[in-house]
Design goal:
Chitinase A, domain 3; 7 strands; single chain; alpha/beta
C-alpha cells in the first residue's frame, strides 16, 4: 500500500504545540511580580493534579513549565528609593497635554490596561533614568514627556 493512504492516527495531523516563549534578557521582577508568579505556579500545579483529559493536561503542563522557569530565573529588584526613574518606580508625567501615571515592572507583571508597563516597553525605556522636572524625548519628538513625580508603587 502506498504511504499516501497510510494513517497511523490523528496525532500526526494536529498542529504542533510549542513551548511558551520566554522573553529574552533578564527576568527582573518586583516583589509583587514574584508573588504573582508563585500564585500562578500553585494554580497550575493544582490544575495538573486534577486534570485527566490528555489535551488539557498537556497544555497545563506546558504552562507550568513556563511559569516554573520564570520563578527559577526571577531576579527580585529592590524598591527604588531615590528620585530617579528605575525598575519598580511609579512615574507621573505629562505626555501630549495628558496626565499619565505608570509603574515600571517585569514582563510577566506587565498590564498596560492597569498602567503597569514592562521595563522594555518604549515608554518605560524612555523614562528610565529621568528625574522630576526632566523633559524626555519620546516617539521621535524632543521633550515630549515632562516628568512630574517619581515614587514607590
Amino acid at each position: 500500500m502506498s504511504v499516501a493512504f497510510r494513517r497511523d492516527g490523528d496525532e500526526e495531523h494536529l498542529e504542533p504545540k510549542f513551548e511558551v516563549p520566554i522573553p529574552p534578557g533578564p527576568n527582573l521582577v518586583t516583589v509583587r511580580g514574584r508573588e504573582l508568579i508563585l500564585e500562578k505556579v500553585s494554580q497550575l500545579e493544582a490544575q495538573v493534579a486534577a486534570l485527566t483529559e490528555e489535551t488539557a493536561l498537556t497544555g497545563a503542563k506546558r504552562d507550568l513549565r513556563y511559569w516554573q522557569a520564570r520563578l527559577d530565573t526571577a531576579q527580585v529588584q529592590p524598591i527604588p528609593e531615590d528620585s530617579t526613574v528605575r525598575f519598580g518606580s511609579r512615574v507621573r508625567f505629562m505626555l501630549g497635554n495628558k496626565l499619565r501615571e505608570i509603574v515600571i515592572v517585569g514582563h510577566d507583571e506587565a498590564d498596560p490596561a492597569q498602567d503597569r508597563l514592562a521595563f522594555v516597553a518604549p515608554l518605560a525605556k524612555a523614562l528610565l533614568g529621568a528625574e522630576v522636572g526632566d523633559f524626555v524625548d519620546f516617539n521621535g519628538r524632543e521633550e515630549a514627556i515632562e516628568v512630574l513625580e517619581i515614587g514607590a508603587p
